[in-house]
Amino acid sequence: MNPFRKNESRWRPRQVLLFSGHMIDAPDRDKPRFPADKEAVAAKKIADTLDTLGAGPEDLALTQGACGGDILFAEACLQRDVRLHFLLPFEEPTFIQRSVLTGGESWRDRYFAIKPHAKIKTAPVELGPLPEGVNPYERCNLWLLYSALAYGTEKVRFICLWNGEGGDAPGGTAHMYHEVNDKAGQVYWLNTRELW
């Protein structure tokens, strides 16, 4: 799949698949949230949701690209020839250190396997320096959401892999879930408390 197709500026997706989900647990995490042994369960549920939505080449997928849910979502989208955009809160090397390698080296390999098939944008380049007092992850969530909404509220399908609890820090899946509920509406919640 070529992410830079002809007439990209005039292309409009049939639906925009916005994703946020838990990162895979770091090996030293005290309270399990997304254990590595649940990866296959999560991948299947994400794939099933994309199939329910009829995801394909006429659609656009937006996510960050972190280890765990984001990468599983990206891989499933590429299998369905969905156009994929990663919007990163930091420059790519910093993002990889903070949000990809925390799950282990194999997640970096998977990120780089996806990269040639995705359009990648970074907040520092696209939005400018982070304003004082603004959380970079919350800013990125809002950037993802407003990028999706720009195609029309009725096109946004938010898929979240989430346990329903507050996050470890600001700007996680809980933040995105509440922002989407306030502004868009079509939410497909993959509740990890029910999945494992």
UniProtKB/TrEMBL annotation:
Gene3D superfamilies: 3.40.50.450. It comes from the Bacteria. This is DUF1273 family protein.
